[in-house]
Structures are given as C-alpha cells and as structure tokens.
Amino acid sequence: MFKEINLRNHSSLHKLFYSLVVAAVLNISTLSICWFGAKEVVGGSLQTGQLISMFTYSNSVLFSLNILAMITTQLVISGASGQ
After folding, report:
1. Do 51 and 41 meet the contact criterion of CB atoms below 8 Å apart?
2. How far apart are CA 7 and CA 3, in angstroms?
C-alpha cells in the first residue's frame, strides 16, 4: 500500500515539475521575443508583421517540443510503474 501511494505521489511531483519547467520556458521565450522584437520595431529594422510571424513560428516549434517532453515524461513514468 505504501509503495503504491509513494509511486502515485512521485509521479504527481514529476508532472508538477514538468509543467512548471515547460511553462517557464514557454513564457521566457515569448517574453524575450516580445522584448527584443519590440525594440527592433521601435528602431525601424523590423516590421510588426514580421514580429507576429516570429511569434507564430516560435509557438509552433515550442508546441512540438512541449509534446515531445510530455511523451518522454510519460514514458519514464510508465517505465517506473512497470518495475
């Protein structure tokens, strides 16, 4: 009984840690694109549409990495449960 509860809590901690790390990476990357892109738009070397395109491309890449990280986490948890 203790092993089951411990394993359940352990996997919950992995999911919590995973979600915090992924959220931090996504937010920091979006904030940095916004910050540096806004400086370039104000400076005149970048147009607003180009900045929006950069947001779109980065979101699609980060979404794919997010899915890959979720799959990896689930595989590790599944492997630990199988043992």
Report:
1. yes
2. 6
Residue 62 structure tokens: 């980060």
pTM of the model: 0.64
Which residues, 6 or more positions from 34, have their beta carbon under 8 angstroms from its beta carbon?
55
Q: What is the pLDDT along the chain (83 residues), one digit of tens a residue?
A: 656 655 665 666 666 677 788 788 888 988 999 999 999 999 999 999 999 999 899 989 888 888 887 787 777 777 766 66
Type of residue numbered 15? K
In sequence order, the 6+-apart residues with CB closer than 8 A to the CB of 47 are 41
Contact 22, 69 (CB under 8 A): yes
